[in-house]
Design brief:
This protein is mainly α and 454 residues long. The chain is built from 22 helices and five strands. Residues 140-215 form the Nucleotide exchange factor Fes1 domain.
Length: 454
């Protein structure tokens, strides 16, 4: 009986276990960890639903601290703090005015997008591109407005040309004007006054380097050079006036002039009897041709240019020309000296040009032609400006003419007399508060020369 009771008890236990294992899963035995995880996920889902921006109500802060209830959204720019005593979050408005504008337009119950995504580099590039496009559009708009304003104030050139044609007025380029002036000057039917007027107008245009070079393209330069052969002194004067303006600092025109025989014609006019105004203009053209052109300087010496200038200076009534001649000689001497020094120090001067300067034997020619004595005697000129130029030239010729200067008693006495004169004038400058006056500079040049000649 005892054995039968044990078997019955085991059978009942097995049946009870079988029934429990086949019941509804929610009543089945589960892991405590899995149950707690599911409960946490359920709570997080509920919290996310409560914080969903689509269901958040906007909290309207004031300038006083107010408690923030769960589920309320705070506008951007609000001041939020955690109250350590109560554990609640409190909100109020920022004091700066710039945050007050964030509240404009917000109404109670309006949803607030609290997306906190930051801008990427691509977003910034896109925004910058749009900003540039906007600036270009604005600039284009301003340009259009400016162009419209210009159109209102000024008429198109086509309309002006049409109106001028109706009035028999033609708009000409500089080239067309120069061609017309040369034709007028070269025409046998033009009067003397018309030729002089054409040359006078032409001189204005050839001051520009490009215009002077354009004069070569249609043979205008040679026409003006041939004008130096005219029997009319006025034609010679104004032809030389045009040539001097065209030669100035224009190597291309200078070369064409040498090839066209301008140098010979200029020297002939200076060597013959001509009115003083004509010789002034011819000397001006000669100076423009020789400066910075060593080949022309060589030809000048070969053609006896120094003798021509000596005769010009020694003639009566040519003191004005004498000062200009001395200035030319000073420029030529210093130009060659600076070119050689620059070549030795920097090697920037071209070998060909340096060789040309070395072939210009100007200083020996000046000594042989008696320019040491001629220049010294020009110190007797009364004008301060003329004396200044003569003193400069004497300083440039000092190395070549030192012995000649020492043997000239007139030069020494003139320098002593000028020294006393300029000492008095320099003292007056000092009284007037001029520490470095004009006369003090002249006095310094005189003192230097006297020191060198002792």
């Amino acid at each position: 009986m005892a054995l039968l009771g044990m078997l019955l008890g085991l059978l009942m236990a097995s049946c009870f276990t079988f029934c429990l294992s086949h019941q509804n899963p929610e009543f089945a035995l589960t892991s405590p960890e899995k149950s707690s995880t599911k409960e946490a996920e359920r709570r997080e889902t509920t919290a996310e639903e409560e914080l969903d921006p689509e269901v958040l109500e906007v909290f309207h802060p004031t300038h006083e601290w107010q408690a923030l209830r769960p589920g309320q959204a705070v506008p951007a720019g609000s001041h939020v703090r955690l109250n350590l005593q109560t554990g609640a979050r409190e909100v109020k408005l920022q004091e700066e005015d710039k945050f007050r504008s964030n509240l404009k337009g917000l109404k109670k119950g309006r949803r607030l997008d609290i997306n906190t995504n930051t801008y990427t580099s691509q977003d910034l590039k896109s925004a910058l591109a749009k900003f540039k496009e906007g600036a270009e559009v604005e600039s284009s708009k301003e340009d259009k407005e400016r162009q419209a304003k210009v159109k209102r104030l000024f008429r198109p050139i086509e309309e002006l040309k049409k109106d001028f044609e109706e009035l028999n007025v033609v708009i000409e380029t500089d080239m067309q004007i120069m061609v017309r002036l040369i034709n007028k000057f070269n025409s046998s039917s033009s009067s003397l006054e018309e030729k002089i007027a054409a040359l006078f107008d032409l001189e204005y245009y050839v001051h520009q380097m490009d215009n002077a070079q354009d004069l070569l393209s249609f043979g205008g330069l040679q026409v003006v050079i041939n004008g130096l052969n005219s029997t009319e002194p006025l034609v010679k004067e104004y032809a030389a006036f045009v040539l001097g303006a065209a030669f100035s600092s224009n190597p291309k025109v200078q070369v064409e002039a040498i090839e066209g025989g301008a140098l010979q014609k200029l020297l002939v006019i200076l060597a013959t009897e001509q009115p003083l105004p004509a010789k002034k203009k011819v000397l001006f053209a000669l100076c423009s041709l020789l400066r910075h052109f060593p080949y022309a300087q060589q030809q000048f010496l070969k053609l006896g240019g120094l003798q021509v200038l000596r005769s010009l200076v020694q003639a009566k009534g040519t003191e004005v020309l004498a000062v200009r001649v001395v200035t030319l000689l000073y420029d030529l001497v210093t130009e060659k000296m600076f070119a050689e020094e620059e070549a030795e120090l920097t090697w920037e001067t071209s070998p060909e040009k340096l060789q040309q300067y070395r072939q210009v034997h100007l200083l020996p020619g000046l000594r042989e032609q008696g320019w040491c004595e001629i220049t010294a005697h020009l110190l007797a000129l009364p004008e301060h400006d003329a004396r200044e130029k003569v003193l400069q030239t004497l300083g440039a010729l000092l190395a070549t003419c030192r012995d000649r200067f020492r043997q000239d008693p007139q030069l020494s006495s003139t320098l002593v007399s000028l020294q006393a004169e300029y000492q008095a004038l320099a003292a007056l400058e000092l009284q007037d508060g001029e520490d470095e006056g004009y006369f003090r500079e002249l006095l310094g040049s005189i003192n230097s020369l006297l020191k060198e000649l002792r």
